[in-house]
Write a structure and sequence with these properties.
mainly alpha
C-alpha cells in the first residue's frame, strides 16, 4: 500500500510538472481548474461505499463478486447522473467551446472512480493488486499525456487523454471479478442497507476534509495572505504525514474487520502491531522531522518560509496524537462502530472552529496551531473512551 501510493504519487508529480511546463500558465490553469472541480465531485460518487466494501469483503470473501457487481452498478448510476448534470451545466454556463471540451474530458474520471475496484482487493488483503493498479494507471497517464500533449496547441487533448488512460486497469479488474451489471434495480434494497453504514463513513471523510482545511480559511479572515501562506506550508506538511498513516490504516482495516467477531486475539494483535508501528514512526521518523524542520523547510522552500517552522513544531504534538488515535478509530470502524468516530470528528471540528475564532485574531497562525493540538487531544480522549466501551468491554477477559 505504501509503495503503491509513493510510486503513484511520483508519477503524478512528474506529470504535474510536465503539464505545467508544456501547456504554460494559462492553459495549465484551465486544466487544473477542471480537475480540481472533478476531484471534489468524486467524493459524491463513492459515498463511503469503498471503505464499506473493504470491511464487508474482509468478513465474507465468498461474496466478493456480488459486492463488486452491486456497488459498482450503483456508483455508475451516480456517476452517470453527475455527468449529465455537469455536462448540461457546463454547456449552459460556459460560452467557451474549448473549456467545455476540457470539462468533458475531466468528467470522464467520474466513471473511472465508479469502475474502480481496488477496495475489493484490499478487502481480500491482496495489496500487490492495489500496487499494480495505482502504479500502472499513473504510468499510463504519464505516457499517454507525454505522447499526445506537446504544447499549448494540444490543450484540448490533455484531459480526455488523462482520463481515458485510467480506464484500462478498472476494466481488467471487473473482468477478473466477473462483474455483472445490475439493471433491474431490485438490488437497490441491498444498496440501501449498505448506505446506512457507508454514508456515516463518507461523512467522517467529508468532515475530516473540512476540518483539515477550515483553519486555513479562517486564518485568511483575520490575518494577511503572507501569514496564511506560512501556515499553509505547516498545515499541509502535517496533513501529508498523517496521510501516510491513513494508508496504513486502510491496509489493516480488512484484517481487523475479518477478525473482530471470530478471532479476538488476532484483532488485538493487529491493533497492537499498529500501535508499535505508530511508536516506531514517532521516535525514528516524525520526532526527527519536527526537530529538523527549520533545516528541511529552508532547504526545500527557502529561508523566507522559516516562519512556518514554529507552528509546524506545535502541530507536531497534534500529529503524534493522531498517530496513536488511528489504531483505535480504525478498530471502531472495523467493528461497525463508525458512528462513534463520526461523533468524535464533529466534536473535534467544533472545538477547533471555536478555539480558532477566539485565538486567531490575536495570535494568528500560532493560535491555529494550538487549536489543532487541543482538537486532537479531545479526539484521542473521545476515541479511547469509545474503544473501551464498545470494544474492550465486549471482549471476553
Amino acid at each position: 500500500m505504501a509503495a503503491a501510493n509513493i510510486i503513484g504519487s511520483l508519477f503524478s508529480v512528474t506529470l504535474f510538472i510536465y503539464l505545467a511546463r508544456t501547456l504554460r500558465a494559462e492553459a495549465f490553469g484551465a486544466v487544473s481548474y477542471a480537475h480540481s472541480f472533478i476531484f471534489y465531485l468524486l467524493n459524491f460518487v463513492d459515498l463511503g461505499l469503498s471503505t464499506y466494501g473493504i470491511r464487508e469483503v474482509a468478513k465474507n470473501r465468498v461474496r466478493v463478486s456480488e459486492y463488486v457487481s452491486e456497488i459498482v452498478s450503483f456508483k455508475l448510476l451516480i456517476a452517470g447522473s453527475l455527468f449529465i448534470v455537469l455536462t448540461a451545466a457546463t454547456f449552459l454556463s460556459c460560452p467557451s467551446a474549448g473549456f467545455r471540451m476540457i470539462m468533458f474530458g475531466a468528467s470522464l474520471l467520474l466513471f473511472v472512480s465508479a469502475l474502480s475496484t481496488e477496495w475489493a482487493y484490499q478487502g481480500q488483503e491482496k495489496m500487490h493488486m492495489v500496487f499494480l493498479s495505482f502504479v500502472t494507471t499513473t504510468l499510463l497517464q504519464f505516457l499517454m499525456v507525454w505522447a499526445f500533449v506537446k504544447g499549448p496547441r494540444d490543450l484540448l487533448k490533455a484531459t480526455p487523454v488523462y482520463s481515458l488512460a485510467a480506464f484500462l486497469i478498472p476494466i481488467l479488474f471487473l473482468i477478473h471479478f466477473k462483474y455483472k451489471p445490475k439493471l433491474d434495480f431490485s438490488y437497490l434494497k441491498q444498496i440501501k442497507r449498505y448506505l446506512a453504514s457507508s454514508l456515516i463513513i463518507w461523512l467522517i471523510a467529508i468532515f475530516a476534509q473540512v476540518y483539515n482545511g477550515l483553519d486555513i480559511v479562517l486564518l485568511g479572515l483575520f490575518k494577511s495572505p503572507e501569514e496564511v501562506g506560512y501556515f499553509t506550508i505547516a498545515r499541509r506538511a502535517i496533513g501529508g504525514c498523517a496521510l501516510l498513516m491513513v494508508f496504513l490504516a486502510n491496509a489493516l482495516l480488512p484484517r481487523l474487520s475479518a477478525t473482530f467477531s471470530n478471532d479476538v486475539s488476532q484483532f488485538n494483535s493487529a491493533t497492537g502491531k499498529f500501535l508499535k508501528v505508530s511508536s516506531f514512526l514517532t521516535v525514528f521518523v516524525f520526532l526527527p522531522l519536527i526537530a529538523l524542520s527549520d533545516h528541511i523547510i529552508s532547504f526545500a522552500l527557502g529561508g523566507e518560509y522559516l516562519p512556518a517552522c514554529l507552528p509546524f513544531k506545535i502541530m507536531g504534538l497534534g500529529l503524534i496524537i493522531v498517530l496513536f488515535n488511528l489504531p483505535f478509530s480504525t478498530g471502531l470502524v472495523a467493528a461497525g462502530k463508525e458512528k462513534e468516530v463520526l461523533k468524535q470528528v464533529l466534536a473535534s471540528a467544533s472545538l477547533s472552529v471555536i478555539l480558532n475564532i477566539f485565538l486567531m485574531p490575536e495570535y494568528g497562525m500560532m493560535g491555529a496551531a494550538i487549536s489543532f493540538v487541543f482538537a486532537e487531544i479531545l479526539a484521542i480522549i473521545w476515541i479511547l473512551w469509545a474503544y473501551r466501551k464498545h470494544i474492550l468491554a465486549c471482549q471476553p477477559s
